[in-house]
Specification:
Layout (H helix, E strand, L loop, with lengths): L15 H5 L7 H26 L4 H26 L1 H7 L15 H42 L22 H46 L1 H8 L5 H58 L5 H38 L10 H14 L6 E2 L3 E2 L2 H25 L1
Antiparallel strand pairs: 1-2
Keywords: Membrane, Olfaction, Receptor, Sensory transduction, Transducer, Transmembrane, Transmembrane helix
Membrane topology: Multi-pass membrane protein
Subcellular location: Cell membrane; Membrane
């Protein structure tokens, strides 16, 4: 594989990168995480069925279901990724700095654009990693803080069901270790699936930036490269490379849309329910007590921030793809077409017609994924919360 411009070591923690690119390392991480993933999936499936069948009170049900839904979501996403190996192997070509033919037109510009992209991708993925593992750290610390305050009976991190008493030693310690693993593994899954999408979206956007730069610089590059051939011939060759690159990038965005549109729909639905249920829990705690402890407040706040940020990653990625693909049409006006041959002008005209309508990502093929969809989903979550709060207050 050609040079990869982003840091992929975080995708190797659960064996995702080794699964997609076998020559990148041994398969022991893939096998290890497969075993851990099976154990994780069994646990979450049991808890989800218990939530549905046990007939809990509404407040208990929302607390259990919101946590297990997040873990269930991570397992479903990773299973979907594994089923889309061929598509992902095609999409990660966008990580390569020399993916486009026009990357050779001006190597300094290519280095500048791709280095900027790599830095931005790495900062973004690290920021999300810090946020999600900070959330998990707070959750994992709550049983310890409860024990310090005098309540050392149950060490459960998650509101899980077990067919035995978990309040005595050493069972409570073993349950804590097991749920610690479940929370960390869930965080690792969510980090990998969400950040891989953001890395793909940003890398494809950077490739479009490189294409736009190359199109706009055709006259200058032709002037610099012209030797034996005439400037017009060089301009035609450079335009041909750019148009071929445009077609390759459109194939990437089409495959990105094909693969991710079911996941976008799934993410919008789960984020809507998760945010709504966390708000319901927060309302229940505030209704039962005038004050909310600092650790518990941090738990709810970070959970809400994480749920919103997870949705934002997909909406932001969709917005970036739309914006970057729309730039191609404008850059064609800067190709020097007004001083070029008739054949060159015709090629530019055809390219303008094709690039007039920007590409966009959708959720389920019917709902555009962009920043507007993010705000609409947040509004929907709050609307459902007010309905549930109103119906619950009528019962009392």
């Amino acid at each position: 594989m050609s040079k990869v411009t982003i840091d992929v070591r975080y995708f190797k923690v659960i064996g995702l990168w080794q699964y997609l690119v076998p020559e990148s390392g041994t398969n022991y991480m893939v096998i290890l995480n497969l075993i851990l993933g099976i154990l994780f999936t069994i646990q979450i499936t049991i808890q989800m069925w218990n939530n549905i069948l046990a007939g809990y009170e509404f407040s208990t049900f929302t607390e259990k279901f919101s946590v297990n839904l997040t873990c269930f979501e991570s397992a479903i996403k990773m299973l979907y990724y594994c089923s889309q190996k061929t598509s992902l192997k095609f999409l990660i070509k966008s990580f390569n700095s020399n993916f486009l033919l026009c990357s050779k037109h001006n190597e300094e510009a290519t280095e500048r654009v791709m280095s900027k992209c790599a830095d931005f991708v790495n900062r973004s993925t690290k920021s999300f990693m810090y946020m999600i593992f900070s959330t998990v750290t707070v959750w994992n610390a709550l049983p310890i803080l409860k024990c310090i305050s005098g309540d050392c009976g149950s060490w459960q991190i998650m509101p899980s069901w077990y067919p035995f008493d978990t309040t005595y030693f050493p069972v409570n310690g073993l349950i804590y270790i097991f749920e610690f693993y479940v929370m960390v593994f869930c965080a690792a899954l969510l980090y990998n699936v969400n950040c891989l999408f953001s890395a793909l979206a940003l890398s494809i956007a950077a490739q479009f930036d490189l294409l736009v730069t190359s199109l706009s610089s055709i006259p200058q590059n032709a002037e610099r490269l012209a030797k034996k051939e005439s400037k017009e011939e060089i301009m035609s060759l450079l335009l041909r490379d750019c148009l071929m690159d445009h077609q390759n990038l459109l194939r990437l965005t089409k495959e990105l849309e094909r693969m991710y549109n079911p996941m976008f729909l799934f993410q919008m639905l789960t984020s809507t329910f998760t945010i709504c249920l966390v708000l319901v829990q927060l309302n229940e705690y505030l209704g039962a007590s005038d004050q909310l402890s600092i650790p518990l407040a941090c738990k709810f706040i970070m959970y809400l921030v994480f749920g919103s940020a997870e949705l934002f990653i997909y909406s932001w990625g969709g917005q970036i793809i739309y914006d970057k693909t729309s730039n191609v049409h404008r850059s064609l006006y800067e190709t020097g077409w007004d001083q070029a041959s008739v054949k060159f002008r015709k090629c530019v005209l055809f390219a303008m017609t094709r690039s007039y309508r920007p590409d966009s990502l959708t959720a389920g093929k019917f709902y555009t994924v962009d920043l507007n969809s993010f705000t609409q989903t947040i509004k929907a979550s709050y609307s459902y919360f007010t309905v549930l709060r109103g119906s619950d207050s009528k019962k009392h």
